Amino acid sequence: MSHVRILVGTRKGAFVLTADGKRQRWDISGPHFGGWEIYHLKGSPADPNRLYASQTSGWFGQLIQRSNDGGKTWEPVDNKFAYDGVPGTHQWYDGKPHPWEFKRVWHLEPSLTDPETVYAGVEDAALFRTTDGGQSWRELPGLRGHGSGPAWQPGAGGMCLHTILLDPGHPERMFIAISAAGAFRSDDAGKTWRPINRGLVSQTIPNPTAEVGHCVHRIAMHRSRPDVLFMQKHWDVMRSDDGGESWHEVSGNLPTDFGFPIDVHAHEPDTIYVVPIKSDSEHYPPDGKLRVYRSRTGGNEWEALTNGLPQSNCYLNVLRDAMTVDSLDPCGVYFGTTGGQVYASADAGDSWSPIVRDLPAVLSVEAQSLP
Amino acid sequence: MIRVILPAHLRALARVAGEVKLELEGQATQRSVLDALEACYPMLRGTIRDQVTGQRRPFVRFFACEEDLSHESTDAPLPDAVATGAEPFLIVGAIAGG
Prior knowledge:
heterodimer; A: mainly beta; Methylamine Dehydrogenase, Chain H; four-stranded antiparallel sheet; globular; B: alpha+beta; Ubiquitin-like (UB roll); five-stranded mixed sheet; 3 helices
């Protein structure tokens, strides 16, 4: 019987939720690191019991925790994230140059093949890598240094590198996204980078089609078709069929195309999920109804998924790293809310139920499918 | 012997209960105490002072002998009562929030 492990990062600790393949009854472990913000936890695809967690605090800074037993025990590893060379400046909210300053790790992306190698996306936006299981971190400076870095500006949530996608078909290729700089691609394992934002239109920047400056919220891909990317932008849901060389809008009949997360069904590369949010100032669902929207056509045609979700007086948000899928059959879909609920669907979104209702605000949700 | 009292979250991180006792060679200063503390408990590196700049984190304070020493030079001698172990050196998470 297969199992599922759900890794949940919250404002006040981490939680590990486990169930068998039916995904009906859940065991809940936590809080781990109680009182600390856990921006993200993720397991190694090459060794599912090797987990990494980003633990932060306004008082005590950044820690990275590692587990070798699926989250039962943890050990702190290196937490020194020093920018390569002289960090230089990016733009501040007032348009003036502002020195790059490390604040926190938003996202940890373990290598697809090596449990010791992990990429870390940080604020102020940069990409770091460890190749020794977190014992040391080194920046991949080609991203900040490729040329447009001095023009990057923070979004309202900070200038964070929040998305890291590793291409399973091309081991040298990876995609990242930064708020509010946009999406970038490397074809040489992170040495050099270039913006991939052609086709994005953002009315919130002086030149709506600028090469950089777009507030990309999240990118997703299906591992069987890594040239097809789906993006939830600040406004607009976008799709690329050429590895990010160009994008076109697939918002279609969504009630609003603002939102944060986007993800792809584990077995159907054209089935995608978003959670529409009313607007960038009203960070809650339209009409007080929590609805996941699913497209089975790779965008444009969307259906509301409501069975089991609150359809009145619901005014929470779902953050960019707080939705995920498992790889069981049928595909499980999960998301966490700023209201502290973690919802699960064991039937690809047709019906939902809460695993837990009263956690601290959920920052991230990741699923592991285990034998 | 220097006695150090850590805030609860850092005691949990370092897996210690109660006071931490450190043996110092040379003069007791903020820098020498923190150097010794981090040598004994490497997981505390970066949690009290920034690893790159060496500066105290903004929401961390250093108290001793009913005085706030946070803004003293990191190389200034600590009070004799701290250096002799009569009084503890307190590392405090500042009150923040509503």
